[in-house]
Amino acid sequence: MKTITDRDEALEAVTDWGHALRRVSDRLIDDEQIVSEAVKNDGHALRFASERLQDDERIVSEAVKQYGWALESASERLKDDALIVMEAIKKYPRALVFSSNRLQKELS
Predict the structure, then answer these.
(1) How many C-beta atoms lie closer than 10 Å to residue 92's C-beta?
(2) How far apart are CA 80 and CA 99, in angstroms?
(3) Is residue 52 part of a domain?
(4) Residue 12 domain-assigned (yes or no)
(5) Is 1 part of any domain?
(6) Distance CA 64, CA 84 (A)
(7) Which domain holds residue 14?
(8) CA angle at 11 for the pair 57 and 60, rounded to the nearest 5°
(9) Does residue 68 or residue 1 have the better pLDDT?
(10) Rounded to whole angstroms, how far apart are CA atoms 57 and 88?
């Protein structure tokens, strides 16, 4: 499978199919616009984003609103963010298992 290294090509690919983020170069999985488009299309694509963007509130919020299970790929800090976790469990109640122990106790 060919790695996409061109920014415009990557943006087009993830706009058509968010999961295409898995084919994007390491440099571009840290590009906010590319990752934002990917997770808007397919929240599950968050798992292919850079660690920095897995810790970005806006990106993670977009991902979990589209696919609650994406909480699994969020940073530990955001797994302890009540607003992010609530968005995730609105979409997929079982996503609570990916939240922090503190929130699991509070929300169950």
Answers:
(1) 16
(2) 6
(3) yes
(4) yes
(5) no
(6) 7
(7) 7-107
(8) 15
(9) 68
(10) 13
In 10 A of CB 91, how many CB atoms?
17
pLDDT at 102: 97
Tokens of 75: 């940073």
DSSP state of 95: G
Contacts of 3 (CB under 8 A, 6+ apart): 23, 24, 25
pLDDT in tens, 52-61: 999 999 999 9
pLDDT, mean of residues 70-95 = 97
Question: pTM for this one?
Answer: 0.94
pLDDT-based confidence at residue 108 (cuts at 50, 70, 90): confident
Amino acid at 48: F
CB 21 within 8 A of CB 38: yes
Tally of structural domains, the chain:
1
